[in-house]
Amino acid sequence: MKTTDSNLKVAILGVRGYPYVYSGYETLVKELGERLQKRGVKVTVYCHRSLFSNRPSEVNGIKLVYMPAIEQKSLSQLTHSFFSMVHACLSDVDVILVVNSANGPFGLISRLFRKPTAINVDGLEWLRPKWKGMGAKYFLWSSKMSTKWYDHIINDADAMQKIYKDMFGCESTVIAYGANPSFHSDPEKIKKWGLDKQDYFLIVGRMVPDNNADLLVKGFVASNSKRKLVVVGDVPYKDAYASQLKQIQDSRLVFTGYVTDPEELKALFHNCYAYYHGHEFGGTNPSMLKALGYGCAILALNTVFNQEMLQNGKYGWFFEKNIASVKAITEKAEMEEAAMEQLRSSSREGLTQKYNWDFVTDQYLEVFRTLKAKKAKN
């Protein structure tokens, strides 16, 4: 049952802004923020000023604050979050929700101002290949600081909760991301790439080592599949890793680059023969949720997080982190068309209550109410 919270004021920071859907975090802000607003919560979202040429003060009932940043690659996100945190602490909001464990140290600011805070820490950022040296050390330290300075830690998967408990001795609440299941799309949308229904495998995600794009492409190329491999995504900068992948010569490979039209992306999911998921270091992954909600047969890297999302193989098959394993599962999928059809027909059943956006909102609301009540008692 949805209740109203007309006296609750919540600020959200650590994202690029709203309405701006680029990653899982921005999707969380959109889905959660809009639902909170409809329940009477006064929601403020902090936006990265340089990303918005038009800067309305309010969209869909959500108040927007545009904060500056030091526009350098390694400082942009952190400085934006720092300025946003200071501004939020000086405002009249009751609770601050921060996303991204990189913002861990800024919990000290809210602690000094006695503003109740929760942080969604996301995945194992310190293990991602893109963060090397000082970057990895910073993420490990900042994740630890998140557990020291914030009032409430939110993990997005049971497996991630266990890792934070084992590594940092911290108690946390598990709140997954939600999904928006869809049964229909326009099959004509995939014709622009010369594709037909179920004549291709699909990869969706940034073309980075974290997602094992090279493993997936090379494993597919080594297979005897007669189908195509469609790779959706890219990187927004010159990158040797992505360039080398796009230079692989195989007539079955189709690199679409970014697909910004949500209807085109939906059609690509709906009509694929199977979807490869190579993400390794996160918890609940938004791309996997899309694949489940869009009725895909899923072939996923064998990690504790992917096992959790696919309920230990009930809603997908698993491969190991090597080219031979990707090759083998591709050829197995080609041979077992009935099994692939069964996965497609049952995948949406994998979206249990924990992946329902209204239930996700209920859980966040409970955290916010508890934090506000705790502050009132002190």
From TrEMBL:
SUPFAM superfamilies in the cross-refs: UDP-Glycosyltransferase/glycogen phosphorylase
Classification via InterPro entries: Glyco_trans_1, Glyco_trans_4-like_N, Glycosyltransferase_grp1
Every Glycosyltransferase subfamily 4-like N-terminal domain range: 23-180
Glycosyl transferase family domain span: 187-332
Organism of this sequence: Shivajiella indica
Name the UniProt record assigns to this protein: DUF1972 domain-containing protein
Recorded superkingdom: Bacteria
